[in-house]
Specification:
It is built from 2 helices and 4 strands. It is α+β, with helices and mostly antiparallel strands. The protein has one domain: Glutaredoxin, CATH 3.40.30.
């Protein structure tokens, strides 16, 4: 099973909404939620961010369409 990294931070309403939008991926990917302060500081102003093998799948306001498009290509 492939792994996705969901970079988030505390008290982030945008992160909560993004988490709901990526929940449909859970049967297909292991989603590891990591705080931006734990080694992902380069994304500090971009949270939430979804990564697959260091490639940004989506960031900010998540879109299911953009997520699927970036996971396929």
């Amino acid at each position: 099973m492939s792994e996705l990294i969901f970079v988030t931070t505390e008290n982030c309403e945008l992160c909560k909404k993004a988490r709901e939008k990526i929940s449909f991926l859970e049967p297909y990917f292991k989603i590891q939620e990591i705080d931006v302060q734990e080694g992902y500081q380069e994304y500090l102003l971009r949270v939430p961010v979804l990564l697959k093998k260091e490639k940004i799948i989506d960031e900010g306001i998540f879109s299911k369409f953009k997520i699927l498009k970036n996971l396929v290509f």
